[in-house]
Amino acid sequence: MSPAIRSGSARRVAVVGVALSDCGRVDDATPYALHAQAARRALADSGLSRDVIDGIASAGLGTLAPVEVAEYLGLRPRWVDSTSVGGATWEVMAAHATDAIAAGRANAVLLVYGSTARADIKAKRRTSNLSFGARGPLQFEVPYGHSLIAKYAMAARRHMHEYGTTLEQLASVAVQARANAATNPDAMFRDPITVDEVLDGPMIADPFTKLHCCIRSDGGCAVLLAAEEYVADCASAPVWVLGAGEHVSHTTMSEWDDFTVSPAAVSGRLAFERAGITPDEIDVAEIYDAFTYMTLVTLEDLGFCEKGEGGPFVEKGRLLRDGGLPTNTDGGGLSAQHPGMRGLFLLVEAVRQLRGQAGDGQVRRPDGTLPALAVASGTGGWFCSSGTVVLGR
Fold it and tell me: Which of 21, 55, 236, 348 is surrounded by the fewest CB atoms within 10 Å?
């Protein structure tokens, strides 16, 4: 089926294909090759022909990201998006693509990402950097030596000061992520860890020790969104995009009104309102977790607990696959994979959980049925941006 782009009443939009490329330690592939591998696998997962793809969204690779990636993939899209807002990029792009498909400006949009961040450092093709740049507003902070990690660490310390959040509570986020990773064959690290092991690790940026921080891996993934007309021809049941929201907050720390409130407080509210549901209806949460504090504060801002109660909320095992709110069920960026802008991986895992395709890591409701609703919330920069997407069967 290849319906022409149409205008008029809004169409429903579904995720019809998802896939990962090879992930973890990938020393013999380029980022472009990982893009292509993930895209081919996602298309195969959908059961559709590549001819249906008339839109592409990509960021983080090349000078003209979507143009170069589209050419490499042999696509000639008539709708493109190169929005780049860090880890939130892919949830924001998913929102844009959904709007475009619903309005008839595209029929099927491919979101695709790939990075060899780990392999490039190992091969000395790149080095770590302290700063994203020293121009524009950033020039007023760079002289003080703030690294990206340090900015997250300052925010975590403020939450600890304001609400009594403890290091043990933050460490429990990493422990639960690793426990979830244990059942994921694609996770880079699967051996269990303890709170004491997290606390006793080498200090990276106070209060974050090594295991409070995301891993560095290679890898990529792809998500194919399509109009409702294509669903009948798909290989798997659709996962519908029910609502989405986006928000940007600041770029300089001095312009951040409250270190304990992330932009997910706005993007999440918008996504839930547009989906017509409340947070307590969600079965699975996939949350960007470059650092343990990101998980904790995003859970608060999405409305899963009150502001300041994130510490007690996470320490009770709620984030485990069989917990009260299964979160980062693949192990997240803390244990599974984190090749850079990881937001697209959140959508892949959310879709797999809703489809019942997560293998030994599959979440079940208390009555044994599959989850029906999931939320994926990405964060970019140093809590500068957020995109939240609500998905449902």
Answer: 236
